[in-house]
Amino acid sequence: MPLPAELSLDFAFDEPTDEAHLRARVGRALGVAPSDLPPIALRKRSIDARHGVVRFHLLFEIGASDAVDLGAPHPREVGPSRVIIVGDGPAGLFCAYELARRGIGCTVVDRGKTVQPRRHDLKSLHQGEAVDADSNYCFGEGGAGTYSDGKLYTRAHKRGNVRDVIEILARHGAPEAILTDARPHIGSNRLPQVVVSLREELERCGVTFHFGARVVGLLTLLTRGAARRRAVGVRLADGSEIHGDHVVLATGHSASDIYVLLAELGVRLEPKSFALGVRIEHPQPLINRIQYGPLASHPTLPAAPYRLAETVDERGVFSFCMCPGGFIVPASTEPGGLVVNGMSLSKRSSHYANSGLVVGVEPSDVERAGFRGILGGIDLQRRLESVAFEAGGGRSRAPASRVTDFVNKRASSTLPASSYVPGLAATNVADVLDSLGLPIADRLRRALRVFDRKMRGYLTEEAILVGVESRTSSPVRIPRDPETLESPDLQGLFPAGEGAGYAGGIMSAAMDGMRIARQIATLVPA
User: Fold this and answer.
1) Does residue 200 share a domain with residue 53?
2) Total domain count for the chain?
């Protein structure tokens, strides 16, 4: 009987994982002596801590090849630039990478700075200085993910080749563990170097990058006999222009000025659902006890994650971008507004666990709150962020409440220690959330009680809610043809990634950028 291509096995928490033992377990499961087994390779490793019993799920490839060329095919020397990519986040960077695999030249422009000067701007932000609207946690080399954790887990396996993206990242310096971890993670201390390595390889192949290059206009042309105008380049804030045959818009979920620009050009936009809420922070040892039980302090176990979801009044309430052993950071992009996000370093060794805790918002909710038009969701975000800024008292201080006070509808007078460096203002976060006229706070309260039944101890005075988490995704989608992936209103314009409404996170954005590149490759021969 032929051997299966894959085999999944459960391992006890303290079971050996050396190669000899792994081969013995696989051989026993297949009824084959270890010496008669073909090469095996561990392909995925996950932890199952349900019901207070910790065990590992391991997926093996049977008959694995020893020679693995990670991330092949690799970029090669490109021809003259034919494509302009706006935004150097995952969608833009991986679009450029996929084009370079085919020898197609492109120019990548980004409003922000490269990794190192961007780091200095983030340090200033943590010290309470005003946000740089073009260089912050959302804008700059690598996009929002560069300094916001580097989670690679995705359920969007139908959108592209997940393994390909993982291998490309590993080839450029990401930890080898991402190749096998079921929930791979790079960390905000290591991802910047990975992003730089990707750029440097593309530059060696002839791809051009421009930073500090904010796009303020699209160049269009209407040729004789054409049914619609064509995108032929971009205009930058310094007045310069860059011309090309195709323009990829990969600007991320926070570049609201791009939507205004598109609307003025008559490019179709659509409102879409998104989510608003807060960051919830617990002591990580508490989450470990809830998830791992008696083994919570075992040194071989990682900082425990969690995922929670509930439906309240036909709206989803859910954890978002959970960061074990992480930090809450200021992620504002505009002066006078306050946004928080989460991140963690590769070792996830912080004393704190944080997660977005958000409520789904539909376009009808936006209208009900009095925000009209296609860009009403962006106006709503901006209003909430302004209220949060005022409630925090400025200088990136964030309004916060103990979870127990929030559930009992009262303000907090004291707060426990937190990972949020700029500082917290003890208040009633519900007042900030309720300023929109939507029942965000009420839905969060009701969901928190349910979450405490799912994770006993989750609702505790040791936990705090920090406001506001408002950039989970863009409230706007830029429609594109499902086959050509172009805007139906502007030929040669390819909306991509989170900012266009077609991704949510590093992996899905990267895969969407690669999909765009493959489509462009059918139009622009190398």
Assistant:
1) no
2) 3
